Amino acid sequence: MVDRVVIALAFSLISLAFLVAAYASPYWIESFQRADSVFIKAGIWEFCFNDFTFWKDFNGNRYKGCWYTFKKAMKPIWYWLNPHWLILVQVLSSLAILFYGITIIFIVLAVCHVFSENRMEMIIFGSSIVEFVIVIMQIISLTLYGIKRGGRGWLPRPDQNFLSWAYGLYFVSAIFTLAGAITLFKAGMKIRKKLKEDFPNRRHV
Fold it and tell me: Which of 11, 42, 52, 176 gives 63 a disulfide partner, CB atoms 3.0 to 4.6 angstroms apart?
């Protein structure tokens, strides 16, 4: 049982590492070099331009280099750069990292035998459910970004942009999250089976 929990912990740590790397990276989408576009690359928090001006910005600000989305200079184009679907991706990704951090703490405590067997069953099943929820959030984020990134109302020349390696890291993270969730569920079932054998009159929820 502990072996499966350790394996699930390894899956979760790998997944979290990929998730954080993708979360912080500006390489979710890039422009082909041959396109010579004013847009260079972007993540979910950072956008890189090559002397870009926004037609609705009457101040005529020019953007060159990489810019954090909440930087003061980005205020004139913030609503254009952050449509509702991207804000949802940002929120879901942030919650995924938060939930993951809390879940991993409980899994580590379980591996260290901090909990009783009765409590262990609840912790492992609970962690499994949380990781399944994280998978759902990641799938929603991947789907939204993958579909909406090509919209002509967002980044310049969408036909010359492509999904980059950070988006791939996010996808790999989702796979490891699913593997961790399934492994935790199997570990929980094994604990439940052992408790039934040791305490046949015990009620299970």
Answer: 52
Sequence-distant (≥ 6) Cβ neighbours of residue 12 within 8 angstroms: 100, 103, 104, 107, 131, 176, 177, 180
Detail the DSSP E strand segments found in 141-192: 161-163
Q: Evaluate whether 162 touches 41 at the Cβ level (below 8 Å).
A: no
Residue 8 lies in a domain: yes
Which residues sit opposite 47 in a β-bridge? 42, 67
45 falls within a domain: no
Contacts of 118 (CB under 8 A, 6+ apart): 195
- pLDDT, tens digit, for every residue of 135-192? 999 999 999 999 999 888 888 888 899 999 999 999 999 999 999 999 999 999 988 8
Q: Does 65 reside within a domain?
A: no
Concatenated DSSP letters of 30-91: EE-GGG--SEEEE-SSEEEEEEE--TT-TT---EEEEEETTSGGGGGGHHHHS-HHHHHHHH
Q: Report which residue type is found at 63.
A: Y
Residue with token string 């492994």 = 183
Determine the residue type at 87.
I
Structural domain of residue 89, as residue ranges?
A: 2-30+81-198
In a domain, 93, yes or no: yes
**SS3 label, residue 156:** coil
Nearest to 67 by CA among 38, 35, 95: 38
CATH for 143: 1.20.140.150
